[in-house]
Amino acid sequence: MEGHEIVGFVAGFGTTFAAAPDLLAILKRRSSQGMNPTMAGIMGSFQIMWVYYGILIDSMPVVVWNIIAVVINFLMVGVFFYFARIGKN
Q1: What string of pLDDT tens digits covers the 89 residues of the chain?
Q2: 68 contacts: CB under 8 Å, gap ≥ 6
Q3: Which residue, 55, 13, 18, is CA-closest to 39?
Q4: What pTM did the predictor assign?
Q5: How far is residue 89's CA from residue 55's CA, in Å, rounded to a whole number?
Q6: Does residue 62 contact residue 53 with C-beta atoms inside 8 Å?
Q7: How would you label 65-84 residue by residue, b for 16+ Cβ within 10 Å and e otherwise?
Q8: Which residues neighbour 75 within 8 Å (Cβ) at sequence distance 6 or greater?
């Protein structure tokens, strides 16, 4: 693995899992209070474009990291609405 590939791997890992601590905190406290799902939704939407870009340039790391990031961000949105709905009942 060359130097630029290592940098790309580390950068992809970092940006992909940046939202994971917030997701885990929401799940732990079982509340979406204080969370705005808009950013996660926007990030997930644009990461879909990164997946497409990765396909265009034939870069499997770009595709894989961004698919994982899309899942994390849309889980954030889903968890937000799940706990928001439960909180109203």
Answers
A1: 777 778 888 888 888 888 888 889 888 988 888 788 888 889 889 999 999 999 999 988 889 999 999 999 999 999 999 988 887 64
A2: 16, 17
A3: 18
A4: 0.81
A5: 44
A6: yes
A7: bbbbbbebbbbbbebbeebe
A8: 23
**Hey, what are 54's tokens?**
């990765």
Structural domains of the chain, with CATH: 3-88 (1.20.1280.290)
Closest CA to 80 of 9, 6, 29, 4: 29
pLDDT for 53 equals: 94
